[in-house]
Write a structure and sequence with these properties.
The structure holds two protein chains of two kinds. By secondary structure, chain A is an all-beta fold. Chain A is built from no helices and eleven strands. In chain A, strands 2, 4, 5, 6, 9, 10 and 11 form a seven-stranded mixed sheet that branches. Chain A has a four-stranded antiparallel sheet with strand order 1-3-8-7, with no helix packed on it. Chain B is an all-beta fold. Chain B contains no helices and eleven strands. In chain B, the strands form two sheets. In chain B, strands 2, 4, 5, 9, 10 and 11 form a six-stranded mixed sheet that branches. Chain B has a five-stranded antiparallel sheet with strand order 1-3-8-7-6, with no helix packed on it. Chain B is globular. Classes of the chains: A mainly beta, B mainly beta. At the A-B interface, β5 and β9 of A face β5 and β9 of B.
Chain lengths: ~120, ~110
């Protein structure tokens, strides 16, 4: 079974530029998550989708971050304009269903460096 | 105060040692407790999953939850160099409004020396 795919793996940009990350979850998984992991910290949920609807985006900085999940499959996370503090690994995860009884499967992450 | 506190380490032990990793939390609504292992430049992978209080054992790994003290532990017996990684505790609330949102600790970096 193929895992969660993310791209690009690494991205370096200057502040105020924009960047987009792509995620393809495990086939059939209805729930998709984007987490931000700053160096030395645990992952923090940015946004959760159930199919193509948003379940939780309470910690998403909506003035600069946006995310979409068209057709309930793959998803894109965009940052515009980027700030220095956005330097982090952006992890995508998926689960077969919402609720903690579903195990989260993480991708390898997209590492962003903002200069 | 953070909802979940975890000693970041790093923790360095010799091969074969027993390792104890711990987290404390403040939210009494947490009912689901997990331990994830994260190798360098990889995503976290689920190691252990426990609901409510009690112990759970899986091979060399034992997870303990003490809800009265708001304290969870992961024990690794006969530690191996391949156990060298960052260990993240994670927790979630229960109830009809539960969306599966995990709150993570900051992770403890473990190094097992041959």
């Amino acid at each position: 079974e193929a895992g969660v795919a993310q791209s690009p793996r690494y991205k370096i940009i200057e502040k105020r530029q924009s960047v987009a990350f792509w995620c393809n979850p495990i086939s059939g998984h209805a729930t998709l998550y984007w987490y931000q992991q700053i160096l030395g910290q645990g992952p923090k949920l940015l946004i959760q989708f159930q199919n193509n609807g948003v379940v939780d985006d309470s910690q998403l900085p909506k003035d600069r971050f946006s995310a979409e999940r068209l057709k309930g499959v793959d998803s894109t996370l965009k940052i515009q304009p980027a700030k220095l503090e956005d330097s982090a690994v952006y992890l995508c995860a998926s689960s077969a269903r919402a609720g903690i009884t579903g195990e989260l499967f993480f991708g390898e992450g997209s590492r962003l460096t903002v200069l | 105060q953070k909802e979940v506190e975890q000693d970041p380490g790093p923790l360095s032990v010799p091969e074969g040692a027993i390792v104890s990793l711990n987290c404390t939390y403040s939210n009494s609504a947490f009912q689901y407790f997990m331990w994830y292992r994260q190798y360098s430049r990889k995503g976290p992978e689920l190691l252990m999953y426990t609901y409510s209080s009690g112990n759970k054992e899986d091979g060399r790994f034992t997870a303990q939850v003490d809800k009265s003290s708001k304290y969870i532990s992961l024990f690794i017996r006969d530690s191996q160099p391949s156990d060298s990684a960052t260990y993240l505790c994670a927790m979630s609330e229960s109830g009809s409004g539960n969306t599966g949102k995990l709150i993570f600790g900051q992770g403890t970096t473990l190094q097992v020396k041959p």
